UniProtKB/TrEMBL annotation:
Record key words, sorted: Hydrolase, Metal-binding, Metalloprotease, Protease, Zinc
InterPro entries hit by this protein: MetalloPept_cat_dom_sf (IPR024079), Neurolysin/TOP_dom2 (IPR024077), Neurolysin/TOP_N (IPR024080), Pept_M3A_M3B (IPR045090), Pept_M3A_M3B_dom (IPR001567)
Lineage: Eukaryota, Fungi, Dikarya, Basidiomycota, Agaricomycotina
Pfam families linked to this entry: Peptidase_M3 (PF01432)
Keyword Hydrolase on entry: yes
Cross-referenced Gene3D superfamilies: Collagenase (Catalytic Domain), Endopeptidase. Chain P, domain 1, Neurolysin, domain 3
Designated name of the protein: Peptidase M3A/M3B catalytic domain-containing protein
GO molecular function: metal ion binding; metalloendopeptidase activity
Cofactor note: Binds 1 zinc ion.
Peptidase M3A/M3B catalytic domain residues: 222-675
Function: Cleaves proteins, imported into the mitochondrion, to their mature size. While most mitochondrial precursor proteins are processed to the mature form in one step by mitochondrial processing peptidase (MPP), the sequential cleavage by MIP of an octapeptide after initial processing by MPP is a required step for a subgroup of nuclear-encoded precursor proteins destined for the matrix or the inner membrane.
GO CC term, one of those recorded: mitochondrial intermembrane space
Family indicated by similarity: Belongs to the peptidase M3 family.
GO biological process: peptide metabolic process; proteolysis
Length: 686
């Protein structure tokens, strides 16, 4: 897989990572880098006040932290992807050590004293700092304040201990998610309706059963196609219950966050987190979510009515009782049927046109055209698993090393002990070196797409295609950013903006010109016919009310956890909100399951920020409609996007980047027109 075309193969100015670390090396390297970082911070802390300036303090801190991250990030990445138990154990141990040290480092009041001295001296001398350098000063000072470095010594000690315990609890939650190996066994009769090709791909077990894991490629076909509601209910129950081990872990996480909040002088953890986000406060987040819920509710009610009518007919066909309830395990099944009947959406026919070995290079070619980039597979790459591909990324017209962008890894197919969803890791950030050159970024996309084999073309659903397109957007954000400092590189932007660029790019998967380019039937090699493409385009806003109400429900659940000042029963809140907000019925109370145990966002940087998925959509729709809609593959629009949104990363205020891109402040008109077929009203909080 390569998009090199006829360009000459160039030698990258930076060698590729060799993923041949041993458990012993991981431990030794982690300890060495922590020692070096501690010594660097010691030197900064010992500076006389007169010697504290931008270079000796702010640049020195960010340089030390950049080196630590650059050298250790690959070591702890093994936690998510390695099939080697010893290597994973070493990686987990290294992450625990680094988490503990990060608390120590951020709680160093002696270093913060030098920060404040440098800030004071800068105000007096008024050096000619660039906007990115001034942002570095502002962010560093704010971080010290938010870390509690202004607290009395006794309280700082308590906070340090709490933060260490919190980091460990969050890692325990994530490790449980990564190492989950659950499954359910079904007879072929129980899976009636599931495509035979899918059933053939499941592992055969005794008693004429097949094994369905809780990995997405296994579970989704059951939820979408199994005719027997008992099968879907059992699959859903197992999935919701598979990480109940995380219930006490989440209780501990929330308790520690509440204690930290109290020491830091914030009302709630949400108030603490959102202070430094675009939305600024939990009150604004709640207002946004409630406003979106109110707009979506009548749409969701209509969607629910349509699906119930379909369910009634289906129950008659299958000769099973109809109880006039839409259950959570019904939704995917009837959503699929609704699309088939309403817009003639034949998911299996469409899926047959998306073999992985066609879609993946085709999507990469779309990005090549749009962003003026290309990738070349690294020969003889040393990676963590045979499925992984390592690429060097270049400007499309690069003729020398100045056109090098960085390295991309693709780890796309499911296996045990691997991260269970889809995500991109910015493993190493790019930055400007002391000699004016560059240290280049390293990114990795991890997914769980159907794997092509000799007997299976690895067919992807359209949802899979959208996911791949979305995640590649994050990968290119990391590769095309060009900041002076690593801490502002790529996706190092506000959490409630980070999804907007990739959400914007999902629109390409509903454009005829793109669908024609990325589809080829695995047997005939013909692209999707016009009627199938039309079905995909029309299906986009079918059942949109129920779909986005689920996002609102999870966002409100997240806010409920992190605005509560007392212990909260997360399992009860998870199930209560699902029924009241998302309009689908779950289990009876005695059977409630802790489905939140698999939501890694709650400990993986989205705490009190899950609303951001919907919040950033408003910006994403405006960017697409304004700049790309007329010509989605326009290289000129792609260059504008690359220069205004991707290149600056977090080196400036995100709204400034959006305003430069659009030529004006963003608004909600495109979002509301798409979802509600209405114009933005002056009273809208969206």
């Amino acid at each position: 897989m390569s998009t090199a075309d006829n360009n000459p193969r160039l030698t990258p100015p930076q060698p590729a990572i060799k993923w041949n670390h041993t458990p012993e090396l991981i431990k030794t390297k982690t300890d060495e880098e922590i020692t070096a970082n501690r010594q660097a911070l010691d030197s900064i802390a010992n500076l006389p006040k007169a010697d504290c300036n931008f270079q000796s303090v702010f640049e020195a801190i960010t340089k030390a932290n950049t080196v630590l991250s650059k050298e250790t990030s690959p070591l702890i990445f093994y936690t998510h992807v390695t099939p080697n138990d010893d290597l994973r154990a070493a990686s987990i141990a290294a992450e625990e050590t680094l988490d503990k040290y990060s608390v120590e480092a951020e709680m160093r009041v002696d270093v913060y004293r030098s920060v404040l001295n440098a800030e004071e001296n800068i105000k007096e001398t008024n050096p000619n700092l660039t906007p990115e350098q001034r942002r570095l000063v502002e962010k560093t000072v704010l971080e010290g304040k938010r870390a509690g470095l202004g607290l009395p010594e006794t309280e700082r000690g308590k906070l340090k201990t709490l933060k260490e315990e919190l980091a460990k609890a969050c890692q325990d939650f994530s490790n449980n998610c990564n190492q989950e190996k659950g499954y359910m066994d079904f007879t072929v009769e129980q899976l009636r309706g599931v495509p035979q090709k899918t059933i053939d791909g499941y592992k055969k077990v005794e008693d004429d059963k097949v094994r369905v894991t809780f990995k997405t490629p296994d579970t989704v076909p059951v939820m979408k196609y199994a005719e027997l509601p008992e099968t879907r209910k059992a699959m859903f129950a197992g999935s919701e219950d598979r990480l109940k081990i995380n219930v006490p872990v989440m209780d501990k996480v929330l308790d520690l966050r509440r204690q930290c909040t109290e020491l830091l002088g914030y009302d709630t953890w949400a108030q603490y987190v959102l202070e430094d986000r675009m939305i600024k406060s939990p009150e604004k987040a709640a207002e946004f979510l409630e406003d979106l819920r109110e707009k979506l509710h009548p749409v969701g009610v209509a969607d629910r009515k349509a699906l119930l009518e379909l369910k009634k007919s289906e129950c008659e066909r299958l000769n099973i009782p109809f109880d006039n309830e839409l259950y959570v395990w019904d939704w995917r099944y009837y959503d699929r049927l609704y699309a088939e009947k309403t817009v003639n959406m034949d998911n299996e026919f469409i899926k047959a046109h998306f073999p992985a070995n066609v879609v993946i290079p085709a999507v990469l070619d779309i990005y090549k055209q749009l962003l003026n980039v290309r990738i070349e597979e690294v020969p003889n790459a040393v990676v963590w698993h045979e499925d992984v591909k390592q690429y060097a990324a270049w400007d499309l017209d690069a003729t020398d090393q100045s056109g090098f962008l960085g390295y991309l890894h693709l780890d796309l197919f499911p296996r045990q002990n691997k991260y269970g969803h889809a995500a991109v890791w910015g493993l190493i950030s790019g930055y400007e070196t002391d000699d004016g050159g560059r240290s280049y970024p390293v990114t990795c996309m991890v997914a769980n797409l159907a794997k092509p084999t000799d007997n299976d073309p690895g067919l992807l659903s359209h949802d899979d295609v959208v996911t791949f397109f979305h995640e590649m957007g994050h990968a290119w954000h990391g590769l095309l950013s060009r900041t002076k400092y690593a801490r502002f590189h790529g996706t190092s932007v506000s959490r409630d903006f980070v999804e907007a660029p990739s959400q914007m790019l999902e629109n390409w998967c509903f454009e005829r010109v793109v669908l024609e380019k990325i589809s080829r039937h695995h047997e005939t090699q013909l692209p999707l016919p016009d009627e199938a493409i039309e079905s995909i385009i029309k299906s986009r806003y079918l059942d949109v009310g129920l779909f986005y109400l689920r996002q609102v429900y999870i966002g409100m659940f997240d806010q409920a956890l992190h605005t509560s000042k007392e212990k909260i029963n997360a399992t009860e809140k998870w199930n209560e909100l699902r029924e009241t907000i998302s309009l689908v019925k779950g289990f009876e109370k005695a059977m409630w399951k802790p489905g939140f145990g698999s939501v890694g966002h709650l400990v993986g940087g989205y705490d009190a920020q899950y609303y951001g998925y919907a919040y950033s959509l408003v910006i994403a729709y405006d960017m697409y409609e304004t700049i790309f809609k007329a010509d989605p593959l326009s290289p000129a629009a792609g260059k504008r996007y690359r220069d205004s949104i991707l290149k600056p990363g977090g080196s400036r205020d995100e709204l400034a980047s959006v305003e430069e891109f659009l030529g004006r402040p963003y608004n909600a008109e495109a979002f509301q027109k798409a979802l509600f077929n209405s114009d933005a009203s002056s009273g809208s909080h969206l």
